Amino acid sequence: YSDFRIRPLRATIEELESEWEGWTYIKGLQDGRIVASARGRLDGGTCHVGNVIVRPDMQGRGLGKAILAAIEAAFPEARRFELFTGALSASNLAFYSKAGYRAFRRQAPARGEPELVFMEKTA
What we know:
The chain is of the alpha+beta class. The chain has helices spanning 7-10, 13-18, 63-73, 90-98, and strands spanning 24-30, 33-43, 46-54, 80-86, 102-107, 116-122. The radius of gyration is 15 Å and the shape is globular. It starts with 6 loop residues before the first helix and ends with a strand.
């Protein structure tokens, strides 16, 4: 996005710590290093998926697909999965579409934030 004002780049430690409660985290390790991670939280029948991350030097090896499948498998009671990504993140949109997610809502950008695309997948 070439914009260092977006939330992931300006969140404080306190804000990040406050987000830990209520989430399940899955991480992929290689040689003791975290190379991929994702988080999920069940709300009613919906699992909210967030922060699907793969180290840039490890991308293209199926780790994103594996970590996304692992977070979905951690919530067998979920009837649907929901996530969001930036509207300009073409590779993320393609990745999630290939994983079975479909866009169902766009959120206009808030001040200093990118437009978001919300995607869902039924279990």
